[in-house]
Amino acid sequence: MLILGLNMFHADASAAIVIDGEVKFAIAEERLNRHKHYGGFPALAVKACLDAVGAKISDVEHVAVGQDSDANLRKKFQYALSNPAKILNFIRLRQRKEAMRNVRSLLATALDVDSARLRFQEHHLEHHIAHIASAYYCSPWEKAAGFSYDGSGDFVSTMMARCEGNEIEVLDRVFLPHSLGSVYTMICEFIGYSKYGDEGKVMGLAPYGKDTYCGEISKIAAPKNGGFQLDLSYFKPLGSNQGMQILPDGTVRLARHFSDRMEKLFGEPRRLHTEITQRDMDLAFALQQRFEEIFFHLLNHLYGRVPLEDLAMAGGCALNSVANGKIFERTPFRRTYIQPAAGDEGLAVGAALHTYHSVLKQSQRHELKHSYLGPEFSESRIQSALQSAGLPYRKLERGPLLDEAAEQIAAGNVIGWFQGRMEWGPRALGNRSIVAHPGLPNMKEVLNARIKHREWFRPFAPSIMAEYQHEYFEHDHPSPFMLHVYKIRADKRAALCAVNHVDDTGRLQSVTRAENPMYYDLISAFYRKTGIPVILNTSFNENEPIVCTPEEAIDCFQRTRMDVLVIGPFLVVKPSGKVETTAASSPQKTEEV
Ligand SMILES: [Fe+2]
Fold first, then answer.
1. N- to C-terminal Cα distance for the chain?
2. What is the model's pLDDT at position 421?
3. Rounded distance, CA 257 to CA 254, Å?
4. Which three-class secondary structure state does DSSP give residue 382?
5. Parallel, antiparallel, or unpaired: how do β-strands 461-465 and 534-539 relate?
6. Which of 122, 159, 410, 531 is the most exposed place for a label (fewest CB within 10 A)?
7. Residue 214 pLDDT > 70
């Protein structure tokens, strides 16, 4: 049974194909059209899904969309009636969503086929049920507590559910305008991070702050009876889209969220490219603190209703890996399954799996143990890309290739690492990664100056051989998708200085050989040379969506100051040679983007 899942006309448009309950291929449109967070129709992603499984759209029996404009209508009308200025906006959104419902003609046009040949049944699923479905049905569990939270989706910001067998029973919703995602976005905008998806940057800034504004920020959002409530005076009046717009070209744009009250309390908002002050860091600190307090209030309430130790979680806020790393201390939950694509691209998988299990009552489960659901490229395709680029390369057997790559990392060089199928979700997890030595004092500055150009305060992440996690980190729960931040043990901080954040934490990826043998063996080879079972892992890109094709990887390698490219079985060494591995430079407290 062939099911196509879609997230469309929403940020991070994507498609996924499910065959007999197993996710066979999934990809965000941004990786194909190179338009970050693209929010239009995922035409290229649909084609890639069908090509990957050798199917035609006429073979597809069900199409499932992770959005349902009819969901929560009563709440939407109530809000519109009590906020008359928003009615026009509400009607406009409704019209756009009606247009979106014509999935059949959208697919027929995108794939250039006669819509009469399309025989699929169409399903629309409420946004947050799709999020929870994306986690629960991919988890190893037959029952679990389900949780989803983000900015907004189908007029809801937070959902709690009991998941059992084929069913997801919704227990609670928090409706707009009350949204933890909106609180995060609002303060991010205030301190100069106003692009869609900037929240992760501010999470990295938070530990540089102090407890100056915690009292004030805690007034913005307060826990309430297992939910939470915002003080709306800190916000611009919210439309029913919470200020997120999709422009005709698919660009996702955020409108200003914060009200004049924020300026009265905290002064001028920070402008991009200006100095980050202690005030901005303190606001980030207070924001993360309050976010966590409410998050754990919600989770503890959920546990009260679903007293199981397993938590299946998704939604854009589930990418807050700092909060995720504290779940085990602050709640009774003992295991988490967090979708690798926890943000909105994951809706495509959730909608498709929900159709399979809950609508069609199929019970065959397939745990998603890895995120390698994207395209892969043949050796001959890679070779011709190298030849077209005029790059001298060597082809090596697996053992010597791993050994030389590990030697290059150990020597302090920066390696572009391109292998196998591309990752699903926002993290590079060892197939489209840039890797480096985690224990060289200035590696972070080297990477930023030469390739990544990221803000000085953002940490780089460690990939660790799973069996050594307990020796290096203070928590043992696996983090296969780089979605948990744990403290690094005091005696290991020096060895991991390039991935040790200012608060002595790391957003680790625990790597097992079963999930990614090539990447695991690379770390293992590095371990044999250095005694460190960890490498620094950052995404293979330079201010663009993560590279997908060999050509994009080669282009990124050539235009940046990466030293070595390992792509399939081929190894390319730039003649320029060594990185400056000594004399760490002091970070500048301005933005480098
Ligand atoms: Fe969402």
1. 46
2. 98
3. 8
4. helix
5. antiparallel
6. 531
7. yes
Q: State in Å: Cα 545 to ligand 1 middle.
A: 19
- The three-state DSSP-derived secondary structure of 407-440 is HHHHCCCCEEEECCCCCCCCCCCCCEEEEECCCC
Q: Rg for the chain (alpha carbons), in Å?
A: 23
Query: Average pLDDT, stretch 521-539?
Result: 98
Interatomic CA distance for residues 34 and 116, integer angstroms: 32
SS3 149: strand
Residues 6+ positions from 121 with CB-CB distance below 8 Å: 61, 62, 63
CA distances from 362 to 19, 167, 169, 474 (A): 12, 11, 17, 40
How far does residue 151's CA lie from ligand 1's centre (Å)? 7
Q: Given pLDDT bands bounded at 50, 70 and 90, which one contains residue 543?
A: confident
The token duo for 357 is: 């299990």
pLDDT confidence tier of residue 574, bands split at 50, 70 and 90: very high
Report the separation in Å between the CA atom of 149 and the middle of ligand 1, taken as the mean of its atom positions.
7
* pLDDT exceeds 50 at position 216: yes
What's the 102 CA to ligand 1 centre distance in angstroms?
21
Question: If you measure from the C-alpha of residue 576 to the centroid of ligand 1, how many angstroms do you get, rounded to a whole number?
Answer: 44
* Per-residue tokens: 369: 């143990």
Distance (angstroms) between ligand 1 centre and the Cα of 318 equals 10
Interval between CA 127 and ligand 1 midpoint (Å): 6
Residue 150 Cα to ligand 1 middle (Å)? 5
